[in-house]
Amino acid sequence: MNILETKVIEGFCRMCQDGYDLGWHERNGGNLTYRMKNEEVEEVKANFEPKEWKSIGTSVPGLAGEYFIVTGSGKYFRNVSLAPEKNIAIIELDETGENYRIVWGLVEGGRPTSELPSHLMNHEVKKAATNGMHRVIYHCHTTNVIALTFVLPLTDEVFTRELWEMATECPVVFPGGVGVVGWMVPGGREIAVATSELMKKYDVAVWAHHGIFCSGEDFDLTFGLAHTVEKSAEILVKVLAMSPNKLQTITPNNFRDLAKDFNVSLPEEFLYEK
Ligand code: 13P
Ligand code: ZN
Which sequence spans correspond to the domains of the chain? Predict the structure, then answer.
């Protein structure tokens, strides 16, 4: 089986291209990881050439022995579809969940994304929280969400409520809300711990002045989630650019009515009176 023709690699590359096309991946900005299904690993295993084990930089015992498709550090999303084997890799985790090795890809050298600790700690939390359903973690530099982190208070309550108000579908697409991490140095264990803590509760975490992390079951749902959040942020940026005050909006009671009809539960902590 030509590994580049498998559905999972094609889907991974398409998501990278879509994110690039929407302007969320300047230079090497952003990263994507996917926790592979057993049958997907079996399908491509013949292509594997394991390299040496390396430390992940954190411990994810809940992911021991799993395989992930990952973008390479310093690699550009705009190049992924053109040459997947140079820009992405498949990695295997060891039985302790503390080390990884590249088994395919990054043929001209390189290492997995510098945000690997955040990705893997998020995967570990989400795998446990969703009974193994969530497989995709996506980090992108969404312009409008980033812009909002300069003018809105950096709280889960304000970001969730303001994004929900900007488009009626938002509370249906992310009924759990979004979490916010204040500015931190990227790439290390500390920001990974803070993000994975939020991922216990949310499927979206905003990194102040940096971008977002999203989690989902598959490429469509995870990309769609990032797209919905960023679209909502774009509307809010336009509204704020026109006027600091809204003349009318979706009210807390409107949200409660929506929740009943769409059969979602919207936590009351986000439906505060302003
Ligand atoms: P990488 O190129 O290492 O994936 O880093 C890009 C990025 O967005 C860091 O937050
Ligand atoms: Zn980033």
Answer: 1-113, 115-274
